[in-house]
Design goal:
globular
Length: about 200
């Protein structure tokens, strides 16, 4: 029970950190917002918090139980949406920007591909952090934002700020998961080939 409580607490912490990054993005926009958003993932990694998009690519490697990953996802989504609602009352401009942003989303193949590509970048960012450098986070987070790639936890926070819901979150979750696991698979193959040589 204690481990589950810790899992939930760290998932709430991750949602809060990403919420701060998303708030900066909605408040400041380009080009400064994406840069400051990096603080969210830096905090998650250095403080050992549980972020779905930072964990799903390491599901097999870290032997994460599927039920634990599901708990992380659900807590990230619920807490993220609630933090978004709180932020929505702090600044009318942020609320307006969030509403405008959500209106640009759709349930399409293009949106799904953007979600997959975000998953790829998230895996690379966390992988590089685990190798001892924050550069993957510092460059990767602004990269996926500038490219318009879709991050499910950031998106649910934006929905909370906009006080609305959009079904695109479902394909965003799946896309992030696929992209991250695909990058893990590619990296795994590279490591195996190096050992054979």
């Amino acid at each position: 029970m204690t481990k589950k409580i810790e899992l939930i607490n760290k998932s709430i912490g991750a949602a809060l950190l990403i919420s701060l990054g998303d708030y900066a993005l909605l408040k400041l926009g380009l080009p400064l917002g994406p840069v400051l958003f990096s603080l969210g993932l830096l905090g998650v990694c250095y403080m050992g918090q549980n972020l779905f998009t930072g964990k799903c690519g390491f599901l097999i490697e870290d032997k994460i139980k599927p039920i634990d990953l599901l708990i992380i996802l659900l807590v990230n989504l619920i807490a993220g949406y609630l933090f978004g609602l709180v932020f929505s009352i702090t600044d009318p401009e942020v609320l307006k920007n969030a509403i405008t942003k959500v209106k640009t989303w759709d349930v399409s193949l293009a949106f799904f591909i953007k979600s997959i590509l975000c998953g790829v970048i998230m895996y690379i960012a966390v992988f590089m952090y685990r190798k001892g450098t924050p550069l993957g986070i510092i460059f990767g987070i602004p990269l996926f934002i500038f490219c318009g790639f879709q991050h499910c936890i950031a998106n649910i926070i934006t929905m909370g700020v906009a006080r609305t819901w959009h079904t695109s979150i479902l394909i965003c979750i799946v896309g992030n998961f696929i992209g991250s696991l695909f990058m893990w698979y590619v990296s795994k193959d590279v490591k195996l080939n190096k050992k054979k040589k």
